[in-house]
Amino acid sequence: MLARLDDDGVDLVIAPFRKGTLLETSAALSPPLATSGHGEKAIEWRAAMKNGENRWISLVEASARDAGARR
Amino acid sequence: MISAAAARTHADELPPALRETLKRAERLEWWNIAWTISIIVVMGLVLGQSQTMKTAWIEDTLGLVPPIAFLVAARMERTGQRSRKFPFGFERVNGLGFFLASIALAGTGALLLWDSAMTLIKAEHATVGSVRILGRDIWLGWLMIAAQVYAMIPPMIIGRKELPLAEQLSDKLLHTDALMNKANWMTGAAGIAGIVGLGLGWWWADSVAAAFISFDILHDGLTAIRSSTAELVDGAPRALASAKLSDEAEEVRKLLEQRYPGATIRLRETGRLIRAEVHGVHPPRDYDGPEGHWPGEPERNWRLAQVSFVPDAKDK
C-alpha cells in the first residue's frame, strides 16, 4: 500500500510505525494518531502521504493532532 | 634579540587613519559573526525536511569562514611582531585568509548548484508540513519565510558596510566576505521564492531559482580563488573585485619603467601592500623611498611598501 503512494493510486495510508522509522524520508508522516507500548519499542499509528502534497499533508496533520489530542 | 624596529608589527607601519579603519572593519566582523550565529540558530529551528533550507543553513555556517579568517589576520597584523621565525612579520596572513574565504565562497556556490541540480534531476518533491503553535496549525512554510527574511537582512546591511572599508584597506579578504554576504542574502531570496513555489505546488521553483543564483556565487568564488592563488605565488597585484591586474599597480609599473628605462620591473602583493623589484639598475643617489615612487594620491602611498633594486651580477 505504501508503495502505491508514489503511483498516485493512494492518497493516504494509516499504518503502525516504529518510532524514528526510516520511512519518514520517503513519505510524509503525520503526527501519531495513537501510540501503543512505551520507550523504544513504542508503536505509533500514523497517516503516511506522498511527499510534496503540502496542502493535503497540512490538512491531515491538523486532523491527526486533533485526533491525538482527543485520545 | 630583536631590535625595537624589528619588533614593530605590520599594522604599526600603516597610517593612523588606516589603522582606525582596520579596527572599524574588525568591529563590523564581530557583529557579522554574532548575527550569523543567530541566523544559524533560527534557521536550524525551522529546517524541517526541506533540502533547500538545509543547504541555506550549511551556507550560513560557511559564511562564518571569511569573518573569522579576517579577524585572525587582522589580529596578527596588529599584534604579530617580527621574530627570527617570522622575519617578515604577518602581513601575508591576510592573503592566506583571502584564499580560505574564496574557497568557502566557491564551495557555497558549488553546493547550491549541486543541491538544486540533484533536486531537479531526481524530481524531489519537498514536504513542508505544519506545526501547532498556541492551538493554531501554522504551515511551516510561513515560519521558513520569516526565518529567511531574518537571514537576509543582516548580510545585506553588513555586506554594504564592508565594501567601502575593503576599498580603503585594499583588503580582498574583506571584499570576499562582502561577496559571501551577498551570496547569503541572494540564497535567502531564492529560498523564499522556493517556499512560495512549494506553497503553489511548483516543486521545481526553488531549485531553478537556486541554480541561477549559484552560477553567480560560483563565478565570484572562482574569480576570488584565481586572485588569491596569484597572490600566494607572487603573481602581479590583482584588482580588488576581479582577477584583472590592479590599476594602481599598473600605474606603479609604468612610473618605474619611465624612471628606470631598460630595467625589468617585477611587482607582487603581500596582503594589502605592493612590493616592487627593479632589476638591472643600481638605486639612484637621490632615492626618495617607496612613497616617492607612488604615482597616485599621496594618502594611498602606504600601498607601495618597498622598492628594491637588483643590479645585474656583472655590474655589482
Considering the chains and any ligands shown, give keywords for the structure.
heterodimer; A: about 70 residues; alpha+beta; four-stranded antiparallel sheet; about 25% strand; B: about 325 residues; mainly alpha; Alpha-lytic protease prodomain-like; Alpha-Beta Plaits; 2 domains; three-stranded mixed sheet; 8 helices; about 60% helix
Describe what this molecule looks like in 3D.
In chain A, 30% of the residues lie in helices and 25% in strands. Chain A is an alpha+beta fold and 71 residues long. Chain A has one domain. Chain A is globular. The termini of chain A are far apart. Chain B is mainly alpha-helical. In chain B, helix 2 runs antiparallel to helix 4 and helix 6 runs antiparallel to helix 7. The radius of gyration of chain B is 24 Å and the shape is elongated. The relative contact order of chain B is 0.12. At the A-B interface, helix 2 of A face loops of B.
Per CATH, which architecture of the largest domain in chain B? Up-down Bundle
User: Mean pLDDT across all residues of chain A, rounded?
Assistant: 81
Helix content of chain A: 25-40%
Give the biggest sheet of chain B. 3 strands, mixed
Shape of chain B: elongated
Number of domains of chain B: 2
Number of separate strands of chain A: 4
- Count of helices of chain B? 8
CATH superfamily of the largest domain in chain B: Cation efflux protein transmembrane domain
Average residue pLDDT of chain B: 88
Determine the structural class of chain A based on helices, strands and strand pairing.
Answer: alpha+beta
Distance between the termini of chain B: 32 Å
* Biggest sheet descriptor of chain A: 4 strands, antiparallel
Global geometry of chain A: globular
Strands ordered across the widest β-sheet of chain B: 3-4-5
Q: What assembly state would you assign to the polypeptide chains in this entry?
A: heterodimer
